[in-house]
Design brief:
It contains 14 helices and 22 strands. It is of the alpha+beta class and 422 residues long. It folds into four domains: 2-91, 3-Layer(aba) Sandwich (Rossmann fold), CATH 3.40.50.20; 125-180, ATP-grasp fold, A domain (Dna Ligase, domain 1, 2-Layer Sandwich); 191-313, ATP-grasp fold, B domain (D-amino Acid Aminotransferase, Chain A, domain 1, 2-Layer Sandwich), CATH 3.30.470.20; 327-419, Glycinamide Ribonucleotide Synthetase, Chain A, domain 4, CATH 3.90.600.10. A hairpin with an 8-residue loop joins strand 7 and strand 8 (153-156). It binds adenosine monophosphate (AMP) and glycine (GLY). Adenosine monophosphate (AMP) is lined by residues 118, 141, 153, 155, 185, 187-188, 192, 214, 271, 282-283. Residues 212, 227, 285, 289-290, 292 line the site of glycine. Pathway: Purine metabolism; IMP biosynthesis via de novo pathway; N(1)-(5-phospho-D-ribosyl)glycinamide from 5-phospho-alpha-D-ribose 1-diphosphate: step 2/2.
């Protein structure tokens, strides 16, 4: 069969890599892809938001399965368009993708279906938002409602900071129309984890747990990024907590969306804060996490292609997924200056050396040929397996040290939080 993967990040390289291992697959295309996806797939130069272009291509090539990586095409309705054309695409519909596309929509669902989350106010009037901030006090979290490439969440230590954030988002339109509505939340304290689950709208199959590292510097310091590293499993999520998340978050969410008449199909990503009062939802994403997907898929033994097909066909039926017992760690190597301004076009060396290692693999993100050279902020996700998290960390960093490009930066503490549970 022929598969199309939409996207160009580390997540998409991991998806292409995993899909390429399926005996069912003859040919993979990746739009637009990166230097890493080119090893297993034919990269095609179509942008992720060019829905008509993607559909044309899939029709012309008679693609049997399309897997959508990023949120933008999902929120634009790529799956609806493919459905209408009789093509199979993995991911939620436009209406269901609002769980990520609108934080206000997601909050309203959580409140209606009693899903534990931070106490929240939703506002379209800045004066009312400011009055709410003054009533609640600081610390407090201000979020732009719409998609803002991960930058629309501001954790404010003072009410003055929060009021400035409201003005920047709603009046100065720092994130454009994504800031027409703001969501203001109680600041939750605890350890975060990423819970990803497959669902066909009825059955729910959680993947193995993982934890991201959102800040740029060691010790969770500095500005937020797309994610500087991840590991799986995340021991903060005990079996007890996982069943609590299943019962209190995943089940009511999937049942609630069905009740709303917008059944959710695809992968649902719940960002969870483990607070003293139990797990609470920080956000929903309507797609695989990046970089969480890299360590998760490295641990997946099962063929992923029949799983995608079962979700699309509504036949997930609590399917069992097989996992490696080992732990996996992904260390992201970013361009100097990221998440601010950074240079592109730096030649990268050492990937061939990592290829010699049995336990490690380099997933590309912002790279391109000829070279490879750097072409984005997050450049590579060096991912390794180990008998436990400690060895996975050691193996990942051993591989990281083989990679060189000018200005490269990476966190030295990926996975460290998991060590205390050993
Ligand atoms: P989001 O895009 O909503 O996940 O927010 C990005 C990051 O901001 C999360 O991963 C958290 O680290 C942090 N965050 C979001 N909401 C809250 C909250 N209510 N309390 C504390 N931290 C939060
Ligand atoms: N790693 C965070 C995200 O994918 O949103």
């Amino acid at each position: 069969m022929k598969v199309l993967v939409i996207g160009s990040g580390g997540r998409e390289h991991a998806l292409v890599w995993k899909i390429s291992q399926s005996p069912k697959v003859d040919k993979i295309y990746c739009a637009p892809g990166n230097a890493g996806t080119a090893e297993f797939a034919e990269n095609v130069n179509i942008k992720v938001d060019d829905i008509a272009g993607l559909l044309n291509f899939a029709q012309e090539k008679k693609i049997d399965l399309t897997v959508v990586g990023p949120e933008i095409p999902l929120v634009l309705g790529v799956v609806d368009e493919f459905d209408k054309a009789g093509l199979k695409a993995f991911g939620p519909s436009k209406a269901a993708a609002q769980l990520e596309g609108s934080k206000a929509f997601a909050k309203n669902i959580m409140v209606k279906y009693d899903i534990p989350t931070a106490q929240t106010g939703i506002f379209t009037d800045p004066a009312k938002a400011i009055a709410y901030i003054n009533e609640m006090g600081a610390p407090i979290v201000v979020k732009a409602d719409g998609l803002a490439a991960g930058k629309g969440v501001l954790i404010c230590q003072t009410t003055a900071e929060a009021i400035t954030a409201v003005k920047d988002i709603m009046e100065k339109k720092e994130f454009g129309s994504a800031g027409d509505t703001v969501v203001i939340e109680e600041c939750l304290v605890g350890e975060e984890a990423s819970i990803l689950a497959l669902t066909d709208g009825k059955s729910i199959v959680p993947l193995e747990t993982s934890q991201d590292h959102k800040r740029i510097y060691d010790g969770d310091k500095g500005p937020n990024t797309g994610g500087m590293g991840a590991y799986s499993p995340a021991p903060v999520i005990t079996d007890h907590l996982m069943s609590q998340i299943d019962v209190e978050v995943l089940r009511p969410l999937v049942a609630g969306m069905a009740q709303e008449g917008i059944p959710y199909k695809g992968i649902i990503y719940a960002g969870i804060m483990v607070t003293k009062q139990g797990p609470k939802v920080l956000e929903f994403n309507c797609r695989f996490g990046d970089p969480e997907t890299q360590p998760i898929l490295m641990r997946m033994k099962s063929d992923i292609v029949p799983i995608f097909q079962a979700v699309i066909d509504g036949k997930l039926n609590n399917r069992e997924i097989e996992w490696h017992e080992k732990a996996a760690v992904c260390v992201v190597i970013a361009a100097g200056g990221y998440p601010g301004k950074y240079e592109k076009g730096m030649p990268i060396t050492g990937i061939d050396k990592v290829d010699q290692l049995a336990n490690a693999y380099v997933f590309h993100a912002g790279t391109k040929f000829p070279g490879p050279v750097t072409s984005g902020g997050r450049v590579l996700g060096v991912t390794a397996l180990g008998d436990n998290i400690k060895f996975a960390i050691k193996n990942a960093y051993q591989a990281v040290e083989m990679i060189k490009f000018k200005g490269m930066q990476y966190r030295k503490d990926i996975g460290k939080k998991a060590l205390k549970y050993l």
